[in-house]
Amino acid sequence: MKHIMIQNFGIGCLKKNNVSLKEHSIMKKILCLTILILLSCIQTYANENYKHLIKEYRFKCDSITDIEGTINYCERLINPIKFGKPSLALVLHSGKEKGAEGKNLSAPAVKSLIEYAIKTRKKVLIIVPHYPFEPGEYSYMSNALVMRIVKDKVNKYSIPQKKRYIIGASFGGSAAYSIIHHNKNFFKNALIVSFANDYSNEVFKNTNVYYIAGDKDKKISLAVKKSIESLKSNKKISVKYNIFKNKNHIEAMNSAYTDDVWDWLFDTPSTYKKQTVTNKIFTAILACLGIILLLLLLYKIAAHIGRKKS
Questions:
Q1: Domain span holding position 279
Q2: Residue 31: per-residue pLDDT
Q3: Helices (DSSP H) in 82-139: which residue ranges?
Q4: 166-181 mean pLDDT
Q5: Which pLDDT does position 204 carry in this prediction?
Q6: Which of 54, 217, 229, 241 is the most buried (most CB within 10 A)?
Q7: Nearest to residue 193, comparing CAs of 206, 174, 218, 165?
Q8: Which CATH number belongs to the domain containing residue 100 in this structure?
Q9: pLDDT digits (tens, 9 = 90+) for 6-34
Q10: d(CA 238, CA 204)
């Protein structure tokens, strides 16, 4: 009798365990499916705003959320295997960053910066945040979120102040002003394109600045000239500017990003160009020697084959 009771009890437990195992398995599947759906939604949103960055420039996209809201951003570390700490380049887009319009406005800066970093073999972490507002609605809260992303990366890679740079075009220039103003001594150099403001002397107290604008963009070009005048008395910083002739607001942004501008931003020494030319000549000589040796080797092989046949 005892044996039957124990057996029945065991069967009951087994059935209960089977039920709980099945339920557990179903719950796991539901949870995994929910997570996948949420992740796909986030990725879809990021892809919508940064399709060109992901597809053309192999950026990784993510988002950050807290009580102040949500900011999506993309990042890419150029030359990751190179020894040493990377530089940080924060690129702030101009106007709305969606679809073809966003691509047209931000692609010149990103594309040129990547090409420059690869060409000069610089290790650079590029961060491109997406402001989810209409042009002109950059707020202190969104800038605070952007700086939270930046500071996390600075801590992760131990990036010193002398290797931190900020690039802002048009309304992105406005965001750059606000970020620099509220984060004194954080960035070494700033590149501001198609934007300037009357309170430049209050912002660029410890950050070097390079202004670029087009002369057809009269309001901005006049503001740049006023900013340069107001900053002349500050001997602590380096100030440069370039007013393009016969270029408007957008044309200035499309023409701004040259090797000389990046040399200034990244404090690349003037001797670099000479070294680059020397390296190219040396590489060409080595290539020529390699071709000559290969031809001599082929000639010897052909001669050896000829002697064997005779």
A1: 272-310
A2: 62
A3: 99-119
A4: 91
A5: 93
A6: 217
A7: 174
A8: 3.40.50.1820
A9: 444 344 444 444 445 555 566 665 565 55
A10: 10
